[in-house]
Amino acid sequence: MSRGRLILMNFIGIIVVLALIIGGGYYYIQKSNYVSTDNAKVSGDLYTVVAPAAGKVASWNVEEGIDVSKDDEVAKIQSEDGEKTVTVPEDGKIIKTQVKENQMVQAGQQIASEVDMNNLFIIANIKEDKLKDIEAGDDVDVTVDGDTKTTIDGKVEEIGYATNSIFSLMPSSNSDGNYTKVSQTVPVKISISNYSENVLPGMNAEVKISKN
Q1: Whole-model pTM?
Q2: Interval 167-207: pLDDT, tens
Q3: Confidence class of residue 6 from pLDDT cuts 50, 70 and 90?
Q4: Of 2, 69, 105, 141, which sits 20 to 30 A from 53 (CA to CA)?
């Protein structure tokens, strides 16, 4: 083997070792100082607008994507008892409309949905064995799939009081006598501040929570 080739191979070997050391150090720092997960989604306070009575939609005043204020009129329903005015319950943005003018509706039927887009938050599902490392007030770095170029500032607002599995409609069966332990997750609410209009409810997110 030529001297030049030997030097090149040694150099490459040194680079590989350094990369492994740096990568290992980064991984150790991340594991030591942060609780991370990509099992998270953008959420917000969702409000539904319902028909107060059975009848015909006499007028329809909103469309998807418009901003509304509390008590703004959405529609008028012509019922047997006269005309009923339908309003929105809170400030927000209309994200879904489900009826049209002149359509017949039933009492209690959902006719629109709105979300407060100014106060979106993250629901992150954290493994049960990691909860001891976090508490309300911890800083969080958030990345949302719809806006990957921006690191959003967040804070842990609330840690859930039950695992997600407790709300499952299909409880796990153990009829054969065999038991497999499954790691549970607990929902953690994270407030976010400097997010852009590209961040929408339902988008996937990744969070990195600073350990307490």
Answers
A1: 0.76
A2: 765 555 555 556 667 789 999 999 998 899 999 999 999 99
A3: low
A4: 69
User: What is the C-alpha to C-alpha distance for residues 64 and 94, in angstroms, rounded to an integer?
Assistant: 5
Strand order in the sheet with 55-60: 82-87, 73-79, 55-60, 104-105
| Phi, psi torsion values for 26, nearest 5 degrees | -65, -45
Q: Please tell me the distance from the alpha carbon of residue 129 to that of residue 151, in angstroms, as a whole number.
A: 26
CA atoms of 198 and 155, how far apart (whole Å): 20
**Are the CB atoms for 163 and 184 separated by under 8 Å?**
yes
